[in-house]
Amino acid sequence: MRFSNVTYNKIKWIILAVLFACGLLLDIAYEWEGTDRIIKNATIVTIILGSIMFYSMVHYKKSDKRSGRVG
After folding, report:
1. Are 3 and 15 in contact (CB under 8 A)?
2. pLDDT, tens digit, for every residue of 10-28?
3. How far apart are CA 22 and CA 6, in angstroms?
4. DSSP 9-54
């Protein structure tokens, strides 16, 4: 599946900033017991989704080189 640059950048921003910030906000704002588990889980999800996005970026750049597109 191919995304436009705008869509890709929005997804990347959500993964890198919003998911982690939400976990941190829950920890700071509510001070629930066990929020360290929430932060750890948010970090794990962020790492997994970030890895998928990186893998997608690498293959996208390879396909651009093969097709002769510049940019």
Report:
1. no
2. 888 887 788 778 777 877 7
3. 23
4. HHHHHIIIIIHHHHHHHHHHHH--TTHHHHHHHHHHHHHHHHHHHH
